Every structure is written in C-alpha cells, then in structure tokens.
Amino acid sequence: MSKSEPLFGRIALIGLGLIGGSIGHAVKRAGLAGHVAGFARSKETRARALEIGFIDSAHESAAEAAQDADLVILCVPVGALGPSAKEIEPALKKGAILTDVGSVKTAVVRDVGPYVPSGVHFIPGHPIAGTEESGPDAGFAELFDNRWCILTPVPGTEAEAIKALTAFWEGCGSNVDVMESKHHDLVFAIVSHLPHLIAYNIVGTATDLEKVTQSEVIKYAASGFRDFTRLAASDPTMWRDVFLNNREAVLEMLGRFSEDLAALQRAIRWGDGDMLFDLFTRTRAVRRSIIDAGQDTDAPNFGRNPTHAKSVSKK
Amino acid sequence: MSKSEPLFGRIALIGLGLIGGSIGHAVKRAGLAGHVAGFARSKETRARALEIGFIDSAHESAAEAAQDADLVILCVPVGALGPSAKEIEPALKKGAILTDVGSVKTAVVRDVGPYVPSGVHFIPGHPIAGTEESGPDAGFAELFDNRWCILTPVPGTEAEAIKALTAFWEGCGSNVDVMESKHHDLVFAIVSHLPHLIAYNIVGTATDLEKVTQSEVIKYAASGFRDFTRLAASDPTMWRDVFLNNREAVLEMLGRFSEDLAALQRAIRWGDGDMLFDLFTRTRAVRRSIIDAGQDTDAPNFGRNPTHAKSVSKK
Ligand SMILES: NC(=O)c1ccc[n+]([C@@H]2O[C@H](COP(=O)([O-])OP(=O)(O)OC[C@H]3O[C@@H](n4cnc5c(N)ncnc54)[C@H](OP(=O)(O)O)[C@@H]3O)[C@@H](O)[C@H]2O)c1
Ligand SMILES: NC(=O)c1ccc[n+]([C@@H]2O[C@H](COP(=O)([O-])OP(=O)(O)OC[C@H]3O[C@@H](n4cnc5c(N)ncnc54)[C@H](OP(=O)(O)O)[C@@H]3O)[C@@H](O)[C@H]2O)c1
Fold it and tell me: Where is the segment annotated Disordered (chains A, B) (predicted)?
C-alpha cells in the first residue's frame, strides 16, 4: 500500500479509545486515508488523540467528524452505537461506507440499521484484537496484525463496498472473514463473552470470602488466579454493553458451561479420577492447536519471565 | 550464600520434573548442598536430569537416593507422595528433614505422616511457583525467585528444623510463610485449584458444542478464550491428584462460585446493567492490587507483543 494512493479520501473515527486509536495508528502506518477526522465525547481524549497524532483533525460533534467522510467507523461501546449513528445520520454522504467495531453484531444491526440513509453502505464489523487497556493512549498500529476482522454484512449489501472495507482491514494488517451476525454472536459468546464473564465472576467470588482474606488472594495470585484478573480488568462499560446486547447467546453458552461444571463437581465428590484425567488430557491438546494456529505463543507464561526461563532450562 | 558452606551435606530429590528440576537448579546456583541425589520413575528422566546437571547422582530407587540425605524433598504428584514416603522410610537417617512440594497439604500430612520415623523432621511445604510445562527440561533456577513458599508444620515440630528449611527456601530465592495445612488448602482452593477447574471446564465446554466448531474456537481464541487454555494445559496427573485430595475445600469454593454465577446470570437475563457495571469495576481494582503486590506485570499481555506495543503507543 503506497502512501500516495490512499484507499479513502477521508475517514472518520467516532470514538478514540483503544480500538479507534489503533485504527488511527494503522491508517497512518499504511497511508490508507488522505485525512483522518476524529470525535470523542471528552475534550481530553480529543486533545490527546491530536497530540499523539493518530487523527488529523478533532471535532466537537460526531456529525462534524462524519461530514464528507468516505468511511465512518464507530468505535464506541456497543450501547452507544445506536445513539452515535442517529447523531451522524444527517451528515453521512451518499456512497459512504458506515461500519463499527462492536463486539456484538446482531444488536448493532438492530440499533444502527434504522439510521442508515439510503445510498450509504452499512457493514457491521468486529476486529478480533484488543488488550485489557483502554483510552487514547492504549492504541498502537500493530494491534490488528495477523488478527482476524469479521464483517457481518446484511443480505443485499453491495459487493463493491464489502470489497473496499475488506481492503481497508487488510491494509490495517488483518485477515478478513465474513459471517452472519447471528453466528458471530454465538461464536463470540463462547470464545470471548463467557470467558470474560467467568473471569469477572471468579475474581468477584475470591475477593468476597470470609475464610480467606483479600490480601491472601492477592499475595498468592501467581498460582492461577492472576490469569483471570487480566480479563476481569477489562473495561466495565464495554463489557456491560456486551452482556446486555448478546443476552441470549451468552445465556445459552453459560447453560452449557454450568451443566459441564456440575458434572465435574460430581466427579470430584465421587472421586472419579478417570473422568478428571480424561478431561484434563483433552483440554491440553486444545492448547496445542491454538499455538499451532498462531493464536498464542508457547513461552511458559506462568513463570512470567519466559525468555530467561527458556535459556536457563537449556543450559 | 557462599558455595563453600552448603546448608546441607546431601539433598535427595524424589521426582525430577518441573519442581524437582527447578529445585536442583536453584540449589546449584546458590551452592546449597554438597551433593544432590536424584530419583525419578523413568530411566529417561534420570538420565536427562544428570545430563542437564541439576543432580549429581541418579538412583534407581527412591530409598537409595534418600540414603544418608540431610534433606529429602518429595517432588512427585500428590497421589504418589504417600507411596514414595513408604518406600524411603527405612532409608531415612535420624535428624534428617523430610519435606514435599505438593499443592495440597492436609492430605499430605495424612498420607506421609504414618511413614515418618521418629527422629526425622517432617515439614510439609508448597512453593507457589510453576509454569504450565512439566518434565525434567521444564525446570530453571529462577522459578522460585521472589515467590512464596508455604510451610505447614504440624504442632510440635522442632523450631530448628523449620529454621533450616526456611533458610533452604530462602536460598532458592523464595520468601517463606508458615500456616496451618487446613487454611492452606482453603486458600489454594480459591486462588489456584478453582481457577484451574474453571479453565479445564470452559475449554471442555467450548470444544464440545454443536453450533460452534472446534476450529472456530481455535481460530478466534485470542479474544479471551486462549487465556484459559494455558491453565487447562497443566499436567493432568498433577491436577487429578489435587482435586481428589482437596475435595472438601474445592467443593466449598465451587459452591460459592456457582452461587455468584447464578446471580450474574439473573442480572444478564433481567438486563441489570448496574449490577454488571459494579462488579466489573470492583474486579478491575483487584488486578491493580495484584500488580502492586508484584504478583504480575501490567504489560498489556492480551496483545501478546507487549514491549513493542508500549513503545509504539508512546510515539
Ligand atoms: N477492547 C477490546 O478488546 C475490543 C476488541 C474488539 C472490539 N471492541 C469494541 O470496540 C469498541 C470500543 O472499545 P475500546 O476498547 O476502544 O474502548 P475505549 O478505549 O474505552 O474507548 C471508547 C471510546 O468511545 C467513547 N465513548 C464511550 N462512551 C461513549 C458514549 N456513551 N457516547 C459516545 N462516545 C462514547 C470514549 O470517549 P471518551 O474518551 O471521551 O470517554 C472513547 O473515545 C466497543 O464497541 C468494543 O465492543 C473492543
Ligand atoms: N507444576 C506446578 O505448577 C506446581 C507448583 C507447585 C507445586 N507443584 C507440585 O509439585 C509436584 C510435582 O509437580 P511437577 O510440576 O514437578 O510435575 P512433573 O514435572 O510432571 O514431574 C513429576 C515427577 O514425579 C515423577 N512421578 C510421577 N508420577 C509418579 C509416581 N506415581 N510415582 C513416583 N514418581 C512419579 C515423575 O517421574 P517421571 O519423570 O519418571 O515420569 C517426575 O519426575 C506435585 O506434587 C505438584 O502438586 C507443582
């Protein structure tokens, strides 16, 4: 991608946190746009985004940022997507592509759909990349590199528009997948939403016991617990909105999880070591597949000093 | 600790995997022993341990390794501790210290206690350090650095023996805590055993669905799921033994977890965003405390390229 031929003349980022910021950085890195306009609720975020330099202009209203844009990307929490779309509706130009990065998709079609003017191409999207941090300082250009970005266009969406948005995400370093929004929500209920829910829950349980103090939990966290605290430190607003907007799929997966957990509980109570051993052997193989698929590294992260550890153990 | 004044003349390691191996490396690093004798079940492990060099002599029986040792450390799975103790009983010399590294402690007192000859000091122990790897190649000298090691001596244990074992673990880089075995088991049921159980369970659930394929789960694992797969890749034998031997405490904590999860499930079903937001805010603070306590780093690990990420976002 050469900097002299940007894919889009003007891109508008509505929301300038981790994801909006990372998109801005990635657009700059690859020269994907002639101009990046940005909007965030707070003055501080807008000023900081300009200072870091991942937007070219900051605007006091979302509509102003979206004005004349060829690509508008909504990068706000899922619950704020509908209101944001409503706000920019009058400003959207004919032929523009409107997309979002929300972690649920069926609710977005429901909430944003009504505000899409005819002639504007609305294509919901979800980059599968993130960190546990948020805000304009959290973003970086490499966030999307070799990660997936999922598009969930509604039937009838113009192929050219999907192609342009695909090229955009590829320019940001992603691989692009297309699927139905309902299937997306089911897949992410199990690979993302339920893991976060479980993590939030166990951190809540562990710090609300009578017989074990919170300081003991913190002191000995390295023995397993700490791995959940990272997920459980994710942004409260974003995650509240995810659970409120992907209710059915999350409840379905939670039902399965609880059923399986009840079976494990029985195995422990009855001392069924074979059942435990079989499950623990099966799950070990899953990790291997994830590493083989390039979705994680196999450096022994529990030690949290992986490079050193490896070199020492080879002595 | 100078290499010319070892704390113990002869140390015997019964079990030469991640923990036994790491102890061997740490003993060598600090010169804590005149001689390290090792035993493992398999010829391969014994040969590999000698080759790596974290033991000085390999023995075909545990009793032979323990013969004349001043300190004997049982580093085998919890279910093998009793049988190992029985085997070495006749070989233990008067005044020797016998300890273990098992992840549960009340069951160890029950299983090993009967085989402790009079005049031998039995002090159960548990180093709070590990990785998701196992076997003789997994160990490294730094594993215990700045981690805790918990001793759970039974009432009446000689203070001098506790002092010597404390000095040993400090020589390995650890900080030492003393607590009752029953309390230990409750604390680790929540900070370690339940997190592993939950991780095993969710990996099991996610890879056993009809509507979402295993390859989808693997492909999109980076969105949360992968963080559980590390814990769920831990050694099946070790963890089967942990759950079979800390049944009551694990079931108690699992009961609390399930109760809290049911409340979360209701909040999602009823759309109670405030309840979700409050919990997610509280759990975020817990992570902060864990980082402040030096039990984890705050590099944004979800991105899995933390150093680079940080430097880029500061540009
Ligand atoms: N974090 C992840 O791992 C991840 C991954 C994939 C997708 N997503 C999705 O990406 C979107 C943004 O997440 P993020 O991680 O970038 O969050 P973030 O870092 O917290 O940034 C959110 C941005 O949205 C703005 N905002 C928040 N509430 C708003 C409201 N009610 N109305 C208008 N603007 C509002 C914020 O403005 P101020 O700065 O002024 O507060 C901020 O600029 C969410 O829909 C999320 O589901 C996140
Ligand atoms: N891994 C952790 O994170 C961690 C942390 C703290 C405490 N611990 C505790 O440390 C102990 C050892 O764990 P590890 O991680 O070092 O395991 P590991 O790497 O799998 O090593 C286990 C060692 O014990 C031997 N062994 C296995 N089963 C045996 C049996 N039935 N009889 C005699 N020897 C047997 C193995 O012999 P072969 O090599 O010949 O198979 C191997 O040398 C366990 O009690 C565990 O609870 C583990």
Answer: 296-315
Domains contained in chain A, CATH given? 8-179 (3.40.50.720), 183-305 (1.10.3660.10)
CA distance B155 to chain A (A): 21
B41 CA: nearest ligand 2 atom: 40
**Residue A11 CB coordination number (10 Å):** 27
How far separated are the first and last CA of chain B, in Å rounded? 45
- Cβ(A231) – ligand 1 distance below 6 Å: no
Q: What is the pLDDT of residues A128-158, one digit of tens each?
A: 998 888 999 999 999 999 999 999 999 999 9
Chain B CB contacts of A289 below 8 Å: 214, 218
Q: Write the DSSP assignment of A273-289 as a string of letters.
A: HHHHHHHHHHHHHHHHH
d(CA B212, CA B210): 6
Alpha-carbon distance of A154 to A99, in angstroms, equals 12
B216 has pLDDT over 90: yes
How far is B35 from B8, CA to CA, in rounded Å?
8
Ligand with the closest atom to the CA of B130: 2
* Number of other CB atoms surrounding residue B64 within 10 Å: 16
A80 pocket-lining for ligand 1 (C-beta < 6 Å): yes
Across the interface, whether the CB atoms of A309 and B269 are under 8 A apart is answered no
Residue A66: closest CA among A108, A106, A112: A112
CA distance B12 to A237: 54
Residue A16 Cβ inside 6 Å of ligand 1? The answer reads yes
Give per-residue pLDDT as tens, B2-11.
445 799 999 9
